[in-house]
Structures are given as structure tokens and as C-alpha cells.
Amino acid sequence: MSNFLTSTNHNPNKSIEVNQPPTDSVSSLSFSPKANFLVATSWDNQVRCWEVARNGVNVGTVPKASISHDHPVLCSTWKDDGTTVFSGGCDKQVKMYWDTRQPNPVHTQQLPERCYAMTVKHPLMVVGTADRNLIVYNLQNPQAEFKRIVSPLKYQTRCLAAFPDQQGFLVGSIEGRVGVHHLDDSQQGKNFTFKCHREGNEIYSVNSLNFHPIHHTFATAGSDGAFNFWDKDSKQRLKAMLRCNQPIPCSTFNNDGSIFAYSVCYDWSKGAENYNPATAKTYIFLHLPQESEVKGKPRIGATGRK
Hints:
By secondary structure, the protein is mainly beta. The protein has 2 domains: about 1-100 and about 210-270 and about 280-295, Methylamine Dehydrogenase, Chain H (7 Propeller), CATH 2.130.10.10; about 110-195, Thrombin, subunit H (Beta Barrel), CATH 2.40.10. It is built from 2 helices and 25 strands. This is Poly(A)+ RNA export protein rae1.
């Protein structure tokens, strides 16, 4: 039996616990691009916001606001000026913290299949749909598909993250694997995939991919209850963190990469029959990454002059 199933430690990495977490599983986490305000959406129909105050290694969290949807909330994101939060969910509504007075969307894009994941790093947008389609858009001309790619991974797309330089993207699947894909045809030789979030014969979903805003390394989080930091350029894992006793369904860096937020809770991947309300508690944690965990390293075996 794996340690994951027998472990009782929900916080083996001694992370900072966020006060007053949601009462059901967390579906998304997003930090304001301008300040340390963290938003979480949840299956309890709520969107919550906390202010994160940091003084050295001392971190405090204060609940600041919440809004309700009629059904579970699945995703959230901030406007780039940090003034507005958008959230969407099972009630087929997108909500904001303020009234735009504009009922019609600026643009609607028809997709070939159901949307499972999306990432935006303006002007690059990548949408992952069913049937392993990855559709790339240039948001300066959103009416036309820029490129359509079949996922380099054999199984269903779970998460996406655009490169900070907009030259490509990461894709994670339910099969414990990540693909690194460049958009330029001349860079295809740099594409590769790697396995992660596996323990022996147990294979877990990669649920979240987050680039560090300064070092441009990235984090993966999975249903095995672990999060790891990676460097795609040197193809190395920088740090493997200890596994929590429940899955990690979502995670995010703050705007300067000094705080990594992640949730620990049931992710519903094993269905309602494996949900045990007595043991399935919901947590949101804050990890303060050390530079050695998130700063890229030279490729192993590479030679160079100082």
C-alpha cells in the first residue's frame, strides 16, 4: 500500500495554513497580479478572497470578501490591473466583483469540443479540448485559429500553461505526464515530454502547471498530493516536495514568485463513492519557495567558460 493512502499528514511540508478555508474542495486559486490578494473558488458555490500579509518568514491571512454562485464555482482569474476578479461555474454564469453594464461578450469563439483547460499570456491563448485538441490563438486576431495541435500526450488534457515569453506552452495530462511544446516549427527539436506524479505502478493526474514569474521555472501539482519545481531548459527537477495525504487540485504563484499557494483536498477524480466527509477536509497552504527550489540550474554535464 502506498504511503499516500496511509499518510495522515495533510501538511508534511510545514506550509502556512490559510484561515477560514472553503467548506468543500477548491477548484481554482489565483493571486492578484498587483498585490498579495488570493482568490479561491470552491465546490461550495463560493468565491473567497484573502489578504496575505508577509513580514519576513511570518505570514498572516485575513479573509476579505466572498461572493456566491448558484452552483459550484470552477475557475477564477484577475484582470491585469488587479481591480477585478472573474469567476465561472456550473450555474453557466461568469461573475465579477463589479457591474460592467455591458451584457454582451466582446467575442465568442466556437470550439470543436468541450473545453478542459485554457491558458493566456497575451497575445497567446491556448485552449485544450476533448479529443486531445490543443487550439492556439493570437488574441490580436482571435477570429481565426493560429494553429491546431494534437496533444503530444496520449491521454486527456488536464492543465495548460503558456511560456512567459509566449513561444510555447506546457500541457499536463491525467496520466502523470507533462509535454513541453514550442510553437515555432524550427524549434520542434526542443519539444519533449516527461513523467511525473507517479509512485510505482500508481499514476496520478497532473492538475496544475504554474510558471515562476521571475525565474521562468515552473511548478507541477498532482493528485498524488505532491508539488514539484522544474526547469524546462535544463530538463531537471529542482525540488520534490513531500506528499500530502490528499490530492492537490490547484496551485499558483503570487506576482513576484515569493509565495506559492496550493490546496489540499479531495479532487473528485475517484468519484462520489470515494468521498468521505469524515476525512475529506479542505486546506489552502502557502509555501515560501527558497531560491534553490525555483532558480534554474545549468544543464547537467554542460560545459562553459566563466
